[in-house]
Amino acid sequence: MNIKIRPNRISGEIESISSKSMLHRAIILSSIAINKKTKLKVSDIISNDIQATVNCMKELGAKVELDQGCINIISLGNNLKREVNINCGESGTTLRLILPIANQFSDKVIIDCDKELRKRPIEDLIITLEESGLYFDDYDFPITIRNKIVTNHFKIKGDVSSQYISGLLFLCALLNEKSFIELTTRLESSAYVDMTVKILKEFGILVNKIENNNFEIYGGRKNISIPKRYQIEGDWSNSAFFIVGGCLGNSISVSGLELNSSQGDESIVRILKEIGGNVSCFDDSIISKESEFKSFELDFSEIPDLFPILAVVASVSRGTSILKGAKRLKYKESDRIKSTFHMLKSLGADVDIIDDGLVIRGKKMLDGGMVNSCNDHRIVMASTIASIRSKNEVLILNAESVDKSYPNFFEDFKKVGGFIDVII
What we know:
By secondary structure, this protein is α/β, with parallel strands linked by helices. It has helices at residues 20-32, 48-60, 92-98, 115-118, 123-131, 162-174, 190-202, 236-248, 268-274, 307-315, 336-346, 377-386, 409-415, and strands at residues 2-6, 11-15, 37-41, 63-66, 70-74, 81-87, 106-112, 135-136, 143-146, 153-156, 178-183, 206-210, 214-218, 229-231, 251-255, 278-282, 285-289, 297-299, 320-324, 350-354, 357-361, 369-372, 394-397, 419-423. Helix 3 (92-98) links the parallel strand 6 (81-87) and strand 7. The longest helix has 13 residues, at 20-32. The model has no long low-confidence stretch (mean pLDDT 94). Belongs to the EPSP synthase family.
């Protein structure tokens, strides 16, 4: 599906969708407890990535049903399956969170995923799990896993993917003895690990962060306590696009956001304010109004998902901006440094690519043009918001990739005045 967008200065109100990162974690924890029921309250249609996690947990034996704003879950029993086949689709979070725990529920696990996800890093996590007792037939997909974990001490790099650490935290939550995770490098995207720790504690598992970002975990499957109803807070990563949209347009109010969230992308409010954004907070709502931005220099090692939308901000800011610390973005749905560069270049921005980011010289308006989404949901959303400050129409190829995280994105964009034509 290709989308053509006519420039318009959007204005209006939307409700934030449920946090994808939190929902992955809550579904898994609700599923791996012993014979318990829970109801996860969500605010929207679930994305393709969340559906992948639902499918995997059902394959392991949990019962998961979607019902009008809720996900109802009956957790796994004690019976061990002889063999399961799991497909994680395009969801890197699903793969990295479930890979360490699947063999706790089956003697043999075969894990596969879609072609693009196969290209993304996983080897360091596999090596750690091999050293801990699991046996992998191969490192290439589909991956077959046998044996059980025989240690309570895990070593892994902290600067490849925070999801590795989150997956190991889930594994430790299932072990009946105190366990440890030792990071051999600096932890990046630490907010995602903090979110995992927070949710584990809310589900009854004690996690202590000790020196050098190492962790000790007091696990045991019997200790996982499930709230009967658990509210998933709004998604800051996806809401950031509309918050910026209000600054580039006339005014947008985004409701349903937790102002003291564990989500690292909550920092979008602070960042925008620091560079001239007219952004204010009331109760659970963020209101952003027409703004003129100044240039900035920013390290994205802790906030990688904000890179594409803040690159759009830089492209229409006064002066030269430097976006750096984004090396790990080379291994997202696309090489997101390159795909963001090509998006901006296609729209007429003055931008150069550097090893770990971009240098962007801002201008008052972009030209518009045709954008190849590279099947990356965040490139689709960023280029849509860029249309607000474009002279001419923006055509986005393969715009359906937005379904990965935000299936209702274009419907919400139309609610606030976006002009969209679907070109098949």
